[in-house]
Amino acid sequence: MGSGLASLVVTRVFSGIKPTGPVQLGNLLGALRTWVDDQHRADSTFCVVDLHALTVPQDPAVLRAATTELAQLLLAVGIDPTVSTLFVQSDVREHTELSWILECTAAFGELRRMTQFKDKSTDATFVSAGLFTYPALMAADILLYDTDEVPVGDDQRQHLELTRDLAERFNSRYGPTFVVPKATVPTVAARVMDLADPTRKMSKSEDSPQGTVLVLDDLDDVTRKIRRAVTDTDNEVRFDPSAKPGVSNLLAILSACTGDAPETLADRYTQYGPLKADTADAVVEYLRPIQQRYAEFAEDPSGTRSILLAGADKARALAEPKMHQVRSRLGLPTD
Ligand code: TYM
């Protein structure tokens, strides 16, 4: 009886990705890989967060194309819309409505402490107010769906802590409303580093083409970039991210592609050359079927849009009653 009841408890997973720039290996290994697994064990919702892209000016045609292409890539990676929900953020208006309410729940000082805001606003010529309030929109994305777990890379941990704080603050002010979610960060490849400068994170918005492996890169380029990855000169293969960031990054990437622990892999190599060659081969074999499936999905943009609209309907079915409850808690009209 006890275990029967336990099996009825559904874990809800939610995560999102911005349609800004091409998807890189860090997105895939740090987050998307987990999404694909999660959809088979949890009630999972995945979102192309187009509103989050608007914190910097966007060319409308580019954003429209990038949103569709990102959805196609998620399908190619293995997100299955028959077992999970895949939709575009701006198709479900409740995200922006809850975002305002969470902006009013967050303290100015709390948002100012966000390291991503500091990184992105330093040296920027124009800093939008949206860049500052971005984490409130992210919290809205998550809290609308009674989310238990948020599979993300390491760089999103601080935003998840804020989301938890906002949920708890709202619940204590207005009564239990939101599930307090937690980040689920993979044990390896939670922070894939740039191949040309392994002290900085691989990023789709950085201008480091040689250090960034794009999921849709030509596979010969992938091999070349990994074989030329910057390592240190002492030629000892050891998993030690702070002392040996370049070698450890390669071991983490190889680990994520093969399932073997980085420390175990390290024992198999005495030189960097074979490690680089095997890592390049593993990544190429990981990407090859994704690229093949992507080419198929890319031929059918209207089919993709139908999947996304159906996903938005499923998402709205959860978001609308949650927003109704929030409005009621706050004393806003609900009739
Ligand atoms: P975004 O679009 O920058 O990245 C998508 C996911 O990829 C992970 N990631 C990495 N993981 C490992 N190594 C890397 N080098 C690397 N680079 C990126 C990110 O951690 C993320 O999981 N704010 C979010 C999008 C978002 C969101 C949400 C996420 C909006 N609303 C709600 C979860 C839940 C972002 O900018 O991700």
Features:
single chain, mainly alpha, Rossmann fold, 3-stranded parallel sheet, two-stranded parallel ribbon, binds tryptophanyl-5'AMP
N-to-C order of helices and strands: HEHEHHEHHHHEHEHHHHH
CATH architecture of the largest domain: 3-Layer(aba) Sandwich
In CATH terms, the superfamily of the largest domain is HUPs
Radius of gyration in whole Å, from Cα? Answer: 21 Å
Ligand inventory reads: tryptophanyl-5'AMP
Mean pLDDT: 96
First and last CA, distance: 41 Å
Instruction: Show unreliable segments.
Output: none
Q: Within the CATH hierarchy, at the fold level, what is the topology of the largest domain?
A: Rossmann fold
Kindly provide the name of the CATH class of the largest domain.
Alpha Beta
Widest sheet: strand order? 1-2-3
- The helicity comes to 40-55%
* Total DSSP helices: 14
Number of domains: 2
Structural class: mainly alpha
Overall form: globular
Query: Main β-sheet, in a few words?
Result: 3 strands, parallel
Q: How much of the polypeptide forms β-strand, as a percent range?
A: 5-15%
Task: Compute the number of strand runs.
Answer: 5
Give an overview of the whole structure.
With 335 residues, this protein is mainly α. 55% of the residues lie in helices and 7% in strands. The protein has 14 helices and five strands. The chain has a three-stranded parallel beta sheet with strand order 1-2-3. A two-stranded parallel ribbon has the order 4-5. Helix 5 packs across helix 14 (301-330). The protein is globular and about 70 Å long. Bound molecules: tryptophanyl-5'AMP.
